[in-house]
Hints:
Blueprint: H1 20-30, E1 36-37, H2 52-60, H3 75-87, E2 98-102, H4 103-115, E3 121-126, H5 130-138, E4 142-149, E5 155-156, H6 158-163, E6 169-175, H7 187-200, E7 203-207, H8 223-227, E8 233-238, E9 250-256, H9 263-275, H10 281-292, H11 298-301, H12 306-319, E10 324-325, E11 334-335, E12 338-339, H13 349-360, E13 362-363, E14 365-366, E15 378-381, H14 386-405
Parallel strand pairs: 1-13, 3-4, 3-6, 6-7, 7-8
Antiparallel strand pairs: 2-9, 4-5, 8-9, 10-12, 11-15, 14-15
Helix pairs in contact: 1-13, 2-10, 3-10, 4-5, 4-9, 12-14
Amino acid sequence: MRRIRQADKLKNVRYDVRGPILQEAQRLEALGEKILKLNIGNTAPFGFEAPQPVLAAMIQHLPDSQGYSDSKGIYPARTAVAQYYQSVGITEVGVEDVYIGNGVSELITMVLQAFVDDGNEILVPAPDYPLWTGAVALSGGTPVHYRCDERNEWNPDLADIESKITENTHALVVINPNNPTGAVYSEETVRGLVDIARRHDLVLMADEIYEKIVFDDAVHHHTAKAAGDDVLCLTFSGLSKAYRVCGYRAGWVVVTGPKERASDFLEGLTLLANMRMCANVPGQHAIQTALGGYQSIDELIVPGGRFHDQIQLASRLLNEIPGVSCVPPRGALYCFPRLDPEVYPIEDDEAFVIELLREKKILVTHGRGFNWFEPDHFRLVTLPDADVLTEAIGRIADFLQVRRGS
């Protein structure tokens, strides 16, 4: 009998955030080990709960959520999203420009399936959120990684982007605030990215799920606002992180720019939205209340707030470890420290984090899992409270001390 194999189109698809390292953690847990999981930005396990009005809105509308909704989303949710972007200066957004999805992840896949033909090249940052690379490959395209510059607070290297554009390049992905680096791109950088897209006739795909999670003097600049009406921009965001409702799967993509030029593509995107019937309806009912109500994220991102203080603590503790450097994150929920190759000559960073997992029971993700070029980084989630973070980074420091001495 023939073996049943995975499809060939999966050969270049990876999602190491939940890959072999997590499988090893699950094996250890089955043996009775207690693993501290710092690999996924899932807020609920670390004591972050949804704002009560958001929860109440979803509960109140459960009786009305038993049937399918419009495939693009319920009208109140799409209206709230459109009005939110109007309020930040992207005034041309209307209800019909909004698609609601089961989180940003589903919408990334849908957009790329509607947009990418075999052989199309899509520019993706390195490091990236790996779903982007995987979804481009799954859609038949070729992800081409441009370098973000660690020496420039992880802002994208515009010259490197220019050097990688070919006649097959069709879109430029922007992840801002960035996962995994915590970078919040300067206004100059955002305008530079838009200028590249404009000159090379590229579609902009702006992943802005962390737009509300910025610290101190950092300011998030919307790519769509800089793009104006002459560059097609697809802006992805949602409730998962800022409103601590990862499980509600309430995300959206907003289309701005020359939509008349993109009518054929948008017809295809609507077709795919129709094929999956609709997004999770109960989660959609949380959107209007979240966007129209009290911004409860504010108390978490200022000094004294957990998001702010924990990411500052993690960055400081990591930088105190000999041979480790971490650009202080200005947004998001992660640190992406570098291990000096002169001090830690690591050849296989996946094997390195598995060894850390086995010895110290700490689960992190290796840098090449985010399509970084060298095996010299790892990503750490900063959601645990201060005591747990201090303990975890202390274990990492002890692990590295042994490696320095070996």
